[in-house]
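Morning F.,

Quick status update on the modeling queue. The single chain you submitted on Monday has been processed. Sequence for confirmation:
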Amino acid sequence: MLGCMSALNHTSVIFDLDGTLVDSEPNYFEAGRQLLAEHGITDFTWQDHETYVGISTQETLALWKERYGLTAPLPDLLAEKNRRYLELARASTRVYPEMRKFVERLYDAGVPMAVASGSSRPAIEAILAGTGLDAHLTTLVSADEVAHGKPAPDVFLAAAALLGAAPADCVVLEDAAPGALAAKAAGMRCVAIPYVTAQADDPAFAAADLLLRGGQEEFTARAALDWLAAGTRGPSRT
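Structure tokens below.
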């Protein structure tokens, strides 16, 4: 497989974290459900949670303040949500097996990689350390560290800058519509792997260079490597 990897000499790969590398959304849902319950909101459902997939924690909480009339200051809500989430994340976060293989193959081939996530830096670091992905992924950007979260391109552009890569030479892997929009706004190629597969027809995914409509069930490390090595550009659907 690595024989064709020379085609990746000028390619850098940037990963979203939640829902792309790891199945952390159940933990985010539970942390959010607990927080809202503490504030008297007891009817928050998984379907409600799905509408916020791909949006940074801080921006999600700002929307909750409006929707649910939360009176606590945003920094206090953010600290509480992150505390609850980290407790859950440290106890159990699952890496998608084919994603782990993909990261390992890229690392072995010397391909520069970064993580650009809407999560806080402590959350990113805790998940990468707890799953062992920190052995391969050491360049990190949190949406908390840039002016605007996804769908703005800020986190991806910051990651490219840290890698010393031109945006046009970067490929982003994303599971959510805001992230796909952010990748294209950054001038990067995008592999879209919808976490909520029912959202595969979202117009935000239309410009993805590779759309895996079946989500993680469809993703394989080998196919992704073959696609990268081929230097494919332009929308492709599976």
